[in-house]
Write a structure and sequence with these properties.
The protein is an alpha+beta fold. It has one domain: Alpha-Beta Plaits (2-Layer Sandwich). The chain has three helices and ten strands. The strands form four sheets. It has a four-stranded antiparallel β-sheet. Strands 2-3 form a two-stranded antiparallel sheet. Strands 5-6 form a two-stranded antiparallel ribbon. Strand 5 and strand 6 form a beta hairpin. The radius of gyration is 15 Å and the shape is globular.
């Protein structure tokens, strides 16, 4: 079995965050695709809190503006140059973390 050392970016934002009138998570996915990244997954979270406070508002079982987690896995050489533009896109709306991972 061959394992490859890669990077995993985790981007934490809220569903209703916008970038130039577009949902931030869509703008991030478009940016990643345009830059040839292997793949990304958007995960809906149920609840959370951070610097901007609680991430959900529950109305009769419906969550509004819930947290989203975007996971991106690719080679360090492809992801590292994107960190500055990604941080500019996310700005103070979220958090980006980087981990070294092994893909099988």
């Amino acid at each position: 079995m061959v394992k490859m050392k890669m990077w995993c970016l985790t981007i934490r934002i809220k569903k209703n965050d916008l970038l130039e009138g577009k949902r931030l998570f869509n703008a991030l996915l478009d940016f990643l695709m345009k830059n040839g990244i292997l793949g990304a997954t958007v995960i809906n979270a149920v609840d959370g809190f951070g610097r901007r406070g609680r991430s959900t508002l529950h109305i009769e079982g419906i969550s509004i503006n819930h947290p989203l987690v975007i996971e991106v896995v690719d080679e360090q050489s492809k992801l590292e140059p994107l960190l500055i533009p990604l941080k500019a896109m996310v700005a103070d709306n979220g958090l980006i973390t980087v981990q070294e991972v092994y893909a099988l």
